[in-house]
Amino acid sequence: MNELITPELSDRYLRFLVEKINLGDYEEFKSHDFPLSDKISVDAVDVILDDLKEKELIEILSRGHSGYDYTYEISVNKTAVDFLHRGGFTHQENQLRPTLEKLIAELDAINGLPEKNMSRINDLANELKAFLAELPKS
Q1: From CA 45, how far away is CA 36, in angstroms rounded?
Q2: Cα separations (Å) of 84 from 11, 12, 53, 77, 126?
Q3: Which neighbouring-strand residues pair with 30?
Q4: Run of H or E residues at 58
Q5: How far apart are CA 86 and CA 64, in angstroms?
Q6: In terms of pTM, does the model score above 0.85?
Q7: Reading across the β-sheet that carries 27-30, which strands appear in turn?
Q8: Which of 11, 56, 72, 98 has the most CB atoms around it within 10 Å of its CB?
Q9: What would the pLDDT profile of 71-123 be if each residue is shown by its tens digit?
Q10: Local confidence band at 47 (pLDDT 50, 70, 90 cut-offs)
């Protein structure tokens, strides 16, 4: 079963790492050391950590297996601390909806352009509206 990895869960993992690891150091963890590890699979833990690494918030210095657990040596980048201070993934997602709504309103208000341009602007506005309809409401 695939778990839903939410912005809140990603924030929780990043906050956990920032609290446990001093900048410039690294710590060793097993997958069961992480928050909610009793409720999500070790593979989901691995996916969350890979995502944080891909976003350059953490470094995974080593990765291995110890029985059923994954083991990691992880360091935290300063960008992770800054990102959390700015509200993390949850804030980022909460800001997406109002930003898109403003953009759609601006696109809808544009007048006086050649028909070709207006057609493309209307298409973009409709694509954004469809995307916005799929976003969870906060």
Answers
A1: 9
A2: 8, 10, 15, 12, 33
A3: 71
A4: strand 58-66
A5: 32
A6: no
A7: 27-30, 69-76, 58-66
A8: 72
A9: 999 999 999 999 999 999 999 888 888 888 888 888 888 877 788 888 888 88
A10: very high
